[in-house]
Amino acid sequence: MGIKLTQAEEDMLRGKNGEACKVAMGVLLRLGNALGAQEFVRVSSVQCMAHYGSLHDAGLEWLEKLGDMGGRCCVPATQDPASIPFEDWEEMGFDKVYADKQQRLAAAAKKLGEVLTWSCTPYAVGQVPRFGQNIAWAESSAVSYANSVIGARTNRTPAGMAVCVALTGRVPKERMYLDENRAAAVKVNIRDAGELTELDYNTIGIMLGKFAGTRIVAFDGIPESVSNEGLKYLGAAAASSGGVALYHVLGVTPEAFREDPFRGQKPAEEVTWTRRDIQTAQDALTTQNPGEVELAVVGCPHYSIGELIKLADLARGRKIKKGKEFWVYTPFETRNLAERMGLADVFRESGVRILASNCLVISPFPRKYKTLMTDSAKFASYLPSEHHVELVYGSMADCVNTVMN
Ligand code: F3S
Predict the structure, then answer these.
(1) Which end of the chain is more exposed for a tag (fewer CB within 10 A), N or C?
(2) Which of 231, 241, 300 to mutate to test the pocket of ligand 1 (most atoms within 8 A of CB)?
(3) Mean per-residue pLDDT for 393-404?
(4) Residue 31 Cβ < 6 Å to ligand 1
(5) Distance between start and end Cα atoms, the chain
(6) What is the 357 CA–ligand 1 centroid distance (Å)?
(7) What separation in angstroms does the CA of 169 have from each of 67, 166, 202, 203, 363?
(8) In 219-274, which ranges are continuous DSSP H helix?
(9) Reported pTM
(10) 231 and 105 co-located in one domain
(11) Residue nearest to atom 3 of ligand 1 (CA)
């Protein structure tokens, strides 16, 4: 047994498409066989990772080596956020040796022909797969969004593997690529919760990850009016507190819109969450001994243009308090749009800093702040342990009201 190769894949393995493609196909074949796959699927897009904070020197050397061997992506391959803000790192006090390594990674990704979006929301910057399409994305919130909200198919592709998929256009067919692995196993009812805010969807995501682990959940009770941002936060948080790569929402997400996500089976477990449960989980996301908030950080996953409009409306005419800061993470393209729309002027006047195409979790923390505030449950999950800070969890408006006059 093992993976049965097509003629084109045999050719790649023999080096017909160059040395880098041959190496990449060899890696994928070994991984695929270890994972029990029977064949490869062709993918239409890849999300790679070249952030030095996770790849370190070994990952840098791997990407540079593939580039030196003549490797070129054969499908659009975007990039997850970088470990430095490319335009602000010097002024913000990032270490030069560290920044140089990230710049080398950027150069290696460019040489391989990657699409340098540097974002965990590739679907917001031009990479929108179709329903049912096979892709290979890397970052957990993007994976959840693609599987759940779009109905595309991807596993959480490890960084070293993703570049091999980008060079070959192939990925082992296993787990999320197989129809039978996408059915819901457990059910969560949302009842008596009132109107759900984006902060609520963040919080429900944390509850989901803790409850489900890697099981696939179908929600009942999330309204059809839920925003794409709400679903983005739900999936991001669930992937941070558990291993959720796919969830369904009855009447909302594509695999539960007209079809039964349980495929005729009874849920193995069913729970009901009310406003009280959500509030308890929300309170638990603030750490135990927060001091006065010094820095508000939002944009995890990267803020959309709709969120930047809301933030500008909240910040207009106000100023950051002395000794405090407000950072927003968003893709370059969304920042550029905000510039054209005049939103960036509002942020400059009020003192809000836009950090394009970076992420605080995978960056060193260049400022010595002790208490942060965020509207993102994923940031709330990771920042206290990653950067040894206290954290206050609240809405976008709470963040603005806390650090601005
Ligand atoms: Fe994106 Fe970083 Fe959050 S990659 S989802 S901003 S932890």
Answers:
(1) N
(2) 300
(3) 98
(4) no
(5) 67
(6) 10
(7) 16, 5, 33, 36, 30
(8) 228-241
(9) 0.97
(10) no
(11) 300
Atom of ligand 1 nearest to the CA of 236: 5
Phi/psi at 230 (nearest 5 deg)?
A: -60, -45
Q: CA angle at residue 328 from 322 to 330, to 5 degrees?
A: 160
Give, using CA atoms, the residue closest to atom 6 of ligand 1: 300
Nearest-CA residue for atom 4 of ligand 1? 120
Render pLDDT for 318-356 as a digit per residue (tens, 0 to 9): 999 999 999 999 999 999 999 999 999 999 999 999 999
Q: Collapsing DSSP states into helix, strand and coil, what is residue 167? A: helix
Please count the residues of the chain. 405
- Distance (angstroms) between ligand 1 centre and the Cα of 182 equals 25
- Whether residue 78 is found in the same domain as residue 200: no
Using the mean position of ligand 1's atoms as its centre, give its distance from the Cα of residue 80 in Å.
Answer: 9
Residues 25 and 171 in one domain: yes
Q: Residue 161's domain spans which residues? A: 7-179
Q: For residue range 206-216, list pLDDT tens digits in order.
A: 999 999 999 99
Q: Are residues 136 and 203 in the same domain?
A: no
Q: For the segment 274-299, what is each residue's pLDDT rounded down to a tens digit? A: 999 999 999 999 999 999 999 999 99
- Tell me the pLDDT tens digit for each residue of 88-99: 999 999 999 999
Is residue 230 domain-shared with residue 367, that is, in the same domain? no
In this structure, the answer to whether residues 272 and 338 fall within a common structural domain is no
**For 367-391, how does the pLDDT look when each residue is reduced to its tens digit (9 = 90+)?**
889 999 999 999 999 999 999 999 9
* In the block, residue with structure tokens 């923390």: 365
Q: How many domains does the chain have?
A: 3
